[in-house]
Amino acid sequence: MNEKKSVQNSGPDNMYRLIFTLVMIGIISGFVLSFVFQWTAPHIEQHRLAAQREAVFSVLPGTVEYEEEIGERVVFFRGFDEHDNQTGVAVLISGSGFQGDIEIMVGTDPRAEKIRGIKILDHTETPGLGARITEQQFLNHFEDMPFGTYQLVQQDPGEMEVEGISGATISARNVVQIVERAVGKIQDYTGGGR
Amino acid sequence: MYQLIKDFKQGLWEEHPLFVMILGMCPTLAVTNTAINGLAMGLATSFVLISSEIVISLVKKLIPNDVRIPSFILIIATFVTFTDYFLKAFLPDIAASLSLFVPLIVVNCLILGRQESFASQNPVHRSIADALGMGIGFTWGLVVLSIIRELLGMGSIFGAEILGTGYRQMIFMILPGGAFITLGILVGIINLINLKRSGN
Asked: What is the C-alpha to C-alpha distance for residues A120 and A139, in angstroms, rounded to an integer?
């Protein structure tokens, strides 16, 4: 019944009407969403900053205060404990994952040339597979890891080795590469373990 | 009035979106690992369903038949984006645990299906009744499914410990396999109940 009607109406006039309808809906929906965006964006930004702050404290244990310094496409955080002693340097860095970018906070002790801890802040990996890079079990492999390059292994990780995630080799490997890059950035920043 | 109650009740049991029509399986299987996720997903989907059914049933005469599906999708996508921003801004924890599945509400066939089969053919008050019924039906389905999975998989309900620390968690229940098995058993039980009822 419906199809007959559309055949009768198909002509240049009808064509313009179709385009006009879709364009109108698009304009109205874009207009509404721009208001929604303006309304929610400050809140979203606030949550992002809170998560970032929490991440600094979590990857540099003992930190009560930190200084932020913006580097080239990364942000450095110098953490201090209550006696104003430096607890370490963290870097917020992002790199490509399996689908989108992975944003990681990497906390290090540049004097001991060791990673203190890492935390994934943002990612779009597959839920249940690649998204498991956010699990503590995987992140723990990086704790107290000396600076250098790391090998991804299937099980029983030794020195300089990280146990991968089954079904998500690419996500795990990319995290390792981003962490390696973060270490390089920190070494450049602190002038080679100052 | 009688008609409205009938429209409303349809989604609650007789044409239940999950257990009878088997619609919207992607969120159903993916996010029902904890009760709070199931509830949040149900409410988010219901919100999108109700708002888009209202709008579509109001503007249905203005939309030419040839472009109705793309128009519906645009309207649905607008409400989904709204929901996505809203959750990220005001309920960041829930937004983080639902992650990708909020934008995926756009392609939930339950929502497009109701627009096509109901909102585009019925007046607005009946569409609201239909959307409320379907939304509540979808939500209770997700909540029941996720309570069973969370209880067996983690020994808790809505994050509260129920079975105690001695309980050995059946991890597979919160993995995708557990979702299929639980859903299958529930669909079986509901079919059985319906059979018994029609038998009388």
From this structure: 9
